[in-house]
Amino acid sequence: MNKDNLATYLKRIPSFFARGGSIVRAVIFTSLSLIFFVCLYYFIGMGVIHKIDDDVDFQPSQINPGESRTIAMAISLINREVNENGWVANDPFFMPGYLLDNMPNYQQGIIYAISRFAMEMTDQIGRSRGSSEVDSDLDKASGLLKYPGTTWIFDLSTSIAPTASSEAQYKSAMRSLASYNKRLAKGAATFDKRADNLQATLRRFTADLGSNSAAISEHLARSGGWGIDSKSDDIFYSAKGRLYAYYLLLKELEADFSDVVAGKELSSSWNLMLGSLKQASRLNPLVIANGQPDGAIVPSHLASLGFYLLRARTQLREIIDILEK
């Protein structure tokens, strides 16, 4: 290489690094912009999607003569959470709902309570006697409502093939419940309004509340410090969802079993029980804290919810005792 060629080569080196620096800056700018827009997508999306729908004045859709009001409420609740509010518990990682935890736990708590009611409809209320045939619509709905709420259209832990999503199963359950209610209005289905059926249903609800109370109690035993942990809000909103759904279902169940409620003079006790469930449903702290139950600074929202839960459970047991007489 002669001196002229060497000089020319050396002159090109600064421009080469200048171009390289521009490329690096462009890559950094593009990467940071992408990160910014991804964060914005999730942050705004979570804000738009997130909704704890605890309207205690929520009413079922149009009810035709002869239909069950409690079944109509179950249908309306499923429709609201799945079709109107949008089911988020099974959102994949590329959707904003994937990062939510309060709303998914709340929605799954609602569905769980409805599934318990559907089981009682199948085993008790929806058939004349224990030895009679199980209603096919109720049996189908009961099974579908047990489906996990976190299943998307793909479940790679079991298969690479598409599978039924949680929403699809719950919508199918909703259609089965609607089919039952239509047949009930035509006199082609059973809704056995006996006192012992009501008693068995309330006992099932009471047992579930007891299980929920145990979960809260176990977590309270580990409370302390500033009382903020990753599990408190999950337990809180799961229990709140159940209590909210039970409040709405029991309010309509009182209407469906109006003759029994009136005959046993249960109205006063029933209203007290609904009042406890309503208070629990209205609890809506900005941040769920799990401080010591006797803490002076940090509250224990789980203990507050647990108080109303146990109060409602006690009142349900009082109603069950009256029904036994």
Keywords:
325 residues, mainly alpha, 66% helix, 0% strand
Structural summary, described in words:
With 325 residues, the chain is mostly helical. It contains ten helices and no strands. Helix 6 runs antiparallel to helix 10 and helix 7 runs parallel beside helix 10. It is globular, with a radius of gyration of 28 Å. The protein starts with a helix and ends with a helix.
Largest sheet: none
Rg over C-alpha atoms, rounded to the nearest angstrom = 28 Å
Low-pLDDT runs: none
Which structural category fits the helices and strands? Answer: mainly alpha
Average pLDDT reading: 87
Please give the count of helices.
10
Strand segment tally: 0
- The rough form would be described as globular
Estimated share of beta-strand residues: under 5%
Distance between the termini: 112 Å
Determine the fraction of residues in helical runs and give it as a percent range.
55-70%
Order of helices and strands: HHHHHHHHHH
Please give a quick description of this structure.
The chain has 325 residues and is mainly alpha-helical. The protein is built from ten helices and no strands.
